[in-house]
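Running log. JK asked me to keep both predictions on one page so they can be read side by side. First protein, sequence followed by its tokens:
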Amino acid sequence: MRATRPRNRRELIIAAARELFSRDGYANAAMSDIAAAVGIGPSALYRHFGGKQELLHAVVTEALDSCLAGLYPAGPGELDVLVRDFAASALARRELGVLWQREARHLPREQYAELSRRLHAARRTLAGQLTAARPGLDPAHTELLSWGTLGVAASLAYQHVELTTPDLVARLMRRVATSAPPGLGEPRPGAPRGALRHRSRREALLAAATELFAERGYASVSLEDTGAAVGIAGQSIYHHFASKHDLLATAVHRGVERLWVDLAEVLASARDHAGALRHLVWRYIRMALVSRHLVTVIATEAEHLQEADRLRTRQFQRDYIAEWLHLLHAVHPAMTPAEARVRVQTVLTVVNDVARTPRLATRPGIDRALRQLGCELLELDSDPLPE
């Protein structure tokens, strides 16, 4: 007797692909892996999707729509309803942050642009809700807090914590949405591209590769692209780096060492745990705003490292987060480890997302505004800035 084909097979395929793409990365998940996860042959998979890129589009679209659905039921100004519904829908599609920030770049430009428009439309809906709930909020703060609230949702993709209810997520979203950060100036145009360059050819190549990896993804960047960015032939890169992987590993190592140096200086100068944590928030913000491409590469491209480097980077990430958790536990000993981890990852994700948003990252005062948000999310008083 032939087995009956399930009516929801397309949905099962999307669910399996969502898990594999978010866990292993689009480049590392084969169609045969997805078919095996559903318990079907590859030919059956291709009856529903013409190829892996088409499947990726379906996965990202479904995750984006499902996650953002919670933004729309609340009436004007119903902030508590808004964060409750959005926290629930974000938790149900917690993979969205990774899928959007890391994997969606593999989509054709037109599809990516269309999904980006939907995300920006959702952000404008959220901004409208904040304006209705807080009529005196100026546009600059509305933009920051709406992106920050979306950042809370995005952070869930990077958390390896079981959350049985959306209550904590809703509290963190509300904390961001009701914050009153210091004033922000008008966005400043960035320095003209190429206004100042490294004298060292090796450093110029590393900087160009880091920017390209962050903006387009490691898999989409060739050595020829990197060479062209600094005006040399791609093959000339071999005078400075052994391979494209060597470029990526060097960039990741550079970022890792920068974070550890900052951490060591914070601990050496701190008077107490709370002061150290506040100072660490500040140092991370400053680094992310100045070196946003480096932060992005560490967060999104480490999956492309060779195994030994990838394992070392993952261990670094665990160790680095553990330092934050140690400080937070010393300040709030009653806070559960799961809640502490969620709060720390939320701060890092919100900072990273704002650093990658030029209209916000170039506003005078954004560093101070982010510091206040970070301290509030960690339940810290925001004392005067360190020297």
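And the second, directly underneath as requested:
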Amino acid sequence: MEDPGADTPADTPADIAVVGAGAAGLSLVHRLAYTPGPDGTAPTVVLVEAPEGPVRAPARTWCFWETGEGPYDEAVRAGWDRLRVRGPDGRTAEAHLGAARYKMLRSTDFAALVDTRLAPLPRVRRLTAVVDRVRDDPAGGAVVHGTDTAGAPVRVRARWVFDSRPPRRLPPARSTLLQHFRGWFVRCSADAFDPSAVELMDFRTPQPAHGLSFGYVLPLGRREALVEYTEFSRTPLSPEGYERALRDYTGRVLGLGGMTVTGTEQGVIPMTDAVFPRRAGRCVFRIGTAGGATRPATGYTFAAVQRQSDAIADAWRRGRVPVPPAAHAARHRAMDAVMLRAVDTGRVAGARFFSDLFLRNPPDRLLRFLDGRSRWWEEFAIGLSTPVLPMLRSAVELPVLPRRAAVS
């Protein structure tokens, strides 16, 4: 029951409320703002975003494949038509993307573009608040409860609510690794980078005892780049550990001289075969990473978020219940679960596994798989290029393994 006291906040009504202003929340609001419903009008939307501080996610970089012009090209920082993968022994595989581009988008640039587009739309309203709970309303719809920056209560009542806040705890899983990384934005005193190609995975880094590590280079010019050190393992490194790894990679491996670090970014992405429920109530749904948009084998999320947003907007247009769709096909999730199990148990050497995928498969086939657009016969061929017996053992045991809660 609601507290009928004098401090009970007035309702902010909406057709749709979206909690969180990251990639998932902003993408969905942007898509809905231009989507008429069955009555010919766009929904009234309230976006509830966290205030500046520890609750709000820091600035980050998103990358994705896209063919032709995209809806956010105005904010894309850079794009490339070639990708490279370097094995631990230095062997190199190069993929030409053809009509597609590998695009880099900074979260701050993305937010600024969406903010500009939403500002003149009267049916979109923004509130700043820390959300503490979202629940179905017995009278219909759902209610978002929060607190604004002045400490006053906030309440939004909507027909549908989409919650993009990261889960406090990952769902139970058979395998869970973390993709954790730290990146330096660097500027060199001389030409040091090929601006036409991304170093997608450079395994010439010291490999950890468990999992794998690699360098990742996004050139922004001949003298500027975002250089990241990434690990797939069970626990993140200390700040000092990331700094040592980046100094080693930029110095020993890349040989960068006269280098200045102009900025940093850091993050952790779950890589898990856990099942993320996309429905949290009759009228409450989860989107983004909280709704299973992150690809378990790669950590890529942005493209899947766009697919989710398109499907939700289409359901609104048709007057249907807007349940977010599964972001990745069931067979791809199954294949990812096998890979995670094989790497997590150490049955396959992670660095060799990923570098051989690129060395032994046509680049266009592998990129279609990573983007979730491959056919079953292509996936069968990819499977044959992996260590078959360890992968088969992992596949056979998965159905009988219990799902366990992740250790905090």
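Observation for JK regarding the second prediction: The two ends are 33 Å apart (CA to CA).
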